[in-house]
Specification:
Elements: H1 2-7, H2 12-18, E1 20-21, E2 23-24, E3 26-30, H3 38-62, H4 72-103, E4 115-118, H5 123-147, H6 153-184, H7 200-223, H8 230-248
Parallel strand pairs: 1-4
Antiparallel strand pairs: 2-3
GO cellular component, one term: membrane
InterPro entries: MFS_trans_sf, POT_fam
Pfam families: PTR2
Length: 249
């Protein structure tokens, strides 16, 4: 579910942005909707050094005593929790956008009508997405590298990268189900072409709920995870080297 929420960055978030005021500094410069995705990269650039230089030393020294501040699974779990927050914030912002559209009589406005609400309202959900990436994606990368056997590390890297692709497929399935159920309910499709008449906020709440369930399942599974210690890894590597040396003698 983490990557399902992540998929909204370049789909529904962009569509949201296209309906809002996007002028920057002057009315002559209009921010392209898709360019807001750069905020994710910017947030990651800020979050990763902050995590390594400030968060980890502080938590290690004053809270946990763990060499990494928090464990890899705790880092991934933090990112999953942030993805719940991201979906909830997106739902709240969309609810406000719909209220503004209704207030100005734009629910059935002409195609391309701009809702008088600044696109910068979307910054929090993009920023939280970047922080979630910095915790979850980087945490998964380290987990697969650190905890996988050396012979399977390349497969581990491929597995963590494939998660993003799988999330896109799952996202398509979720949208298809939501569209089908909402149309049968008689209230019209939640994700129609006219966002001012859609129920995108409810869709985001569904994502938040599904992400919360996913987070609970993750916690249950993580409780049974046993870390492969550095000592075990080093012993195995030394044994292989020793065996090879004995064979040559």
């Amino acid at each position: 579910m983490f990557t399902v929420v992540l998929s909204q960055n370049h789909t529904l978030y962009v569509k949201q942005a296209s309906t809002m005021q996007r002028s920057f500094i002057s009315h002559n410069f209009i921010v392209p909707p898709a360019s807001l995705q750069s905020l994710i990269g910017l947030t990651i650039i800020i979050t990763v050094p902050f995590y390594d230089r400030i968060f980890v030393p502080f938590v290690r020294r004053h809270i946990t005593g763990h060499p990494s501040g928090i464990t890899l699974l705790q880092r991934i779990g933090t990112g999953l929790a942030l993805s719940i927050l991201e979906a909830a914030v997106a739902a709240l912002v969309e609810s406000r956008r719909l209220r503004v559209a209704k207030h100005y009589g734009l629910l059935d406005g002409p195609k391309g009508a701009v809702v008088p609400m600044q696109v910068w309202w979307l910054v929090p959900q993009y920023a939280i997405s970047g922080m979630s990436d910095a915790f979850t994606i980087v945490g998964l990368q380290e987990l697969f590298y650190d905890q996988m056997p050396e012979s399977m590390r390349s497969m581990g890297a491929a597995a963590y990268i494939s998660i993003v692709g799988i999330g896109s497929f799952v996202n398509t399935g979720v949208i298809t189900v939501v569209q089908g159920v909402s149309s049968r309910a008689g209230g019209g499709k939640w994700l129609g072409d006219n966002l001012n008449r859609a129920n995108l906020d409810k869709f985001y709440w569904i994502l938040a709920g599904m992400s919360a369930v996913n987070f609970c399942v993750y916690l249950l599974i993580a409780r049974g995870f046993v870390y492969r210690t550095v000592e075990e890894h080093d012993v195995r590597r030394l044994e292989r080297r020793g065996g090879g040396a004995g064979g040559r003698s």
